[in-house]
Each structure stands twice: as C-alpha cells, then as structure tokens.
Write a structure and sequence with these properties.
With about 70 residues, the protein is an all-alpha fold. The protein has 4 helices and no strands. The protein is elongated, with a radius of gyration of 16 Å. It has one domain. α1 crosses α4, α2 packs antiparallel against α3 and α2 packs antiparallel against α4.
Length: about 70
C-alpha cells in the first residue's frame, strides 16, 4: 500500500536506499561528535545518535517495498 503510493509520487527504491546509507553516515557523525562534547552533554548526544541510528533500516525497508511493488 505505502509502496504503491510512494511509487506513484515518483520515489524509487534506490532513492530510499541512498537516504538510508546517508543516515548511517549521519549517525556515525553524531556518535563521533558525542565523544568530543563535555561529560554533561555526552549522554544526550549519544542518545541522539542512537535515535538517528534507528532510521536507516526503516528507509531501507520502505525502499524494498517500493521495488517489490514495481515488480
């Protein structure tokens, strides 16, 4: 259902796969940055990196759904 609607909007599976890989790098960047902040803000920065780390699998699976719809 979602794959069909996103395909009609012009999104393709590879768009979301590239987005997913971009969020992996964004998460790694946030995690590295969390190691450079002071101890008081480190916990919040690490939680932010973990939260963003949950996004890549979601975008990857939505991209797979779009590709399955195309077939």
């Amino acid at each position: 259902m979602l794959g069909k609607q996103l395909h009609k909007l012009g999104l393709r599976g590879w768009h979301l796969h590239v987005t997913s890989l971009g969020f992996v790098w964004f998460c790694l960047g946030l995690w590295v940055r969390a190691k450079t902040v002071d101890e008081a803000a480190r916990g919040n920065a690490e939680r932010r990196a973990m939260f963003v780390g949950l996004w890549p699998p979601m975008f990857w699976l939505i991209g797979d759904a779009i590709e399955r719809h195309k077939r």
